[in-house]
Amino acid sequence: GAVVSQHPSRVICKSGTSVKIECRSLDFQATTMFWYRQFPKKSLMLMATSNEGSKATYEQGVEKDKFLINHASLTLSTLTVTSAHPEDSSFYICSARDRSLLAGDQETQYFGPGTRLLVL
Amino acid sequence: RKEVEQDPGPFNVPEGATVAFNCTYSNSASQSFFWYRQDCRKEPKLLMSVYSSGNEDGRFTAQLNRASQYISLLIRDSKLSDSATYLCVVNKAADSWGKLQFGAGTQVVVTP
Fold this sequence. Notes:
- The complex is a heterodimer.
- Chain A is mostly beta strands.
- Chain A contains no helices and eleven strands.
- Chain B is mostly beta strands.
């Protein structure tokens, strides 16, 4: 099946620093990628939808200046957590939708393995 | 009220037994429904889509009840490897194609 990678898988940083997370679709082109955040024992929460070549759309309550998203190509989207604070510590997961799939299958999203961020 | 609600469990199931659990959703305009599986500290993986007429994939059976706005998952002949958290996933609305709403998950623990 389709493969999505994320890098890094784990990052520990000091409060106030910025952290960039990469999400890549390895064997397919993804016009749309999604960024989620998951706290322990909680559901995945959609943060933003990243569209190739255009600005990301953010969910209500998600600060766009805090979580910068860039979708520069059909296989790469990046999420930058700017001036990270301890409350940003979480599991960040991206997903990608395969543009080549038929309409009925286009809702299938392939998830990356996630990035664990710990801000000290 | 949460948009997608699940019993968190855990459901402790003897190996070989059957387990079933539901998920309710609040948006009557939701069009697509899925069950994902998430192992501890891993990403979610699609288990199966849920179709209006109900569908089966091996030992897994999913049902959709639009009138009561719930979906169910039944696992027959449970294996130790079925231990995981099962996420109920609903598309957010008919006009937000691709946006998925996740439940917090139902934990299943299959014991020898």
